[in-house]
Amino acid sequence: MVAGEHETVRALLGLVPSPWRDGPELTVVDAAVSAVKGRPDLASDQLAHARRTLGELPDDRRTAVGTTATLVELFLASRAGLTDAVNRGRSILEDEAVLAPSAAALAAYLVGRAEAYSEYDDTRSLAHLRRGAALAAEQGLTALELACLAESTLPLVGTGDLHGAWALAEEVEARVAAAGWHSPELLASPQVVRGFVSYMRDRLEDACGYLEDGLAALPPSAAVARSRAGAALMAAYVGLGDRGGLLRARAIVLAPDAASSAAIVDCAGVIEALDQALGGRARFGAEALDRLPAGPRLAVGHVWAAEVYRRADRRDDAWRSLAQVDESKRGAQLSVNWELTAAMLAWGQGDTEAAHGHLARALDHAADRGIRRPFAERDDVGPLLRDHLARGTRHAALVGELLAAGDRPRAPRQPVVAKELSARELDVLRELRASRSTAEIAAALYLSVNTVKTHTRSIYRKLGVRGRREALQAALAAGLLE
Length: 482
Description:
Order of helices and strands: HHHHHHHHHHHHHHHHHHHHHHHHHH
Keywords: DNA-binding, Transcription, Transcription regulation
Mean pLDDT: 85
Radius of gyration: 25 Å
Domain HTH luxR-type: 414-479
Number of helices: 26
Structural class: mainly alpha
Protein name: HTH luxR-type domain-containing protein
Low-confidence stretches: 414-419
Shape: globular
InterPro entries: Sig_transdc_resp-reg_C-effctor, Tscrpt_reg_LuxR_C, WH-like_DNA-bd_sf
Organism: Luteimicrobium album
Strand content: under 5%
């Protein structure tokens, strides 16, 4: 199952004669196969049947099957039910002494995997996954060992070890290829990690390729992984100045079947505002932020919002946004972003000492990890870097590299205009804002109702939205409507 050989498992199940084939021990395995084959309702019914028949088993087998059923539920849990499943899995691990080593390895893998998918506690997730990898290696369970290592890459990035995460992702991919396995889900986290590290190193085209592949393979339950990957993919397209790519990434993150959380939806809006600010329309970006509904915001969202407000010369709003990010919650890569925006705010206010203090801390975090994207994102940081170099810094080589990169000619950003919408589609979009019916729009533009409907569907598709309200929000954020 872990190696992705689901058809082999189903074939083996088919070789088992009744009544053993219908017993609870194999029913839980059948449930796992049903789930990965896209039949979650059947899987739930099979698990429920297995639990109902536990009473027919002797005590030792009843305990084993109950434990296995809990682990399968961890493997299957949707985002909504993941927290409860994680808590049950942790209870099993607390009683690890009664588990067989292979079961303990599987439990550590599933708990750590679920933690990586549902929480931001990277340290705990990493500990469980490393424990699972060690136990699996001892038992010769190569697929399970590699699965633990693959899922370790995501929390490893969360702890700030970008070099280690990249090296581990490469190792897992090489060993999976050598084994001849073909399991996209097994390699989803390593792909996301390679994309995230590429983004932080300012290799944006590489980042987009890795992140798109990883997002396509991540299971629906991977809420945290999807939020991280989706935000990085949108930000990478913003950095490339690729408005079409940004809209495609937004559509992936906010797809109906992605069950996006309020924080992820908000983050998409913040990144679109950042796109406005980097494209020279900071005031419109800040106004787009003001229109976002109140609700939960990811830490990186607060920092990006602060950068938008800074560029719009709304310094008080920028400082308030930075203050929302507790220092204990900042990983190395987020700290570089946070400190750079704080440095630029202080520099703009004439507080030179504070500006250099923030910049020095940003350089400390960036130097050994190869983090470069936050400096490229703040394309007005050059004067502060030059002053910092003149003062003397132990990161002189890095500052020189950043200044050289900033002086290189850049491909022009795609202007945030309606180049993806035809003139007629723009006319229809403006009429949509007036809250007119389809018939009223048709009359106003001297078009047929069917033609207006065709233009409206095309507008929704190009903006990556599902309705009029979302289309207007996206158009305002993109500067298509004043």
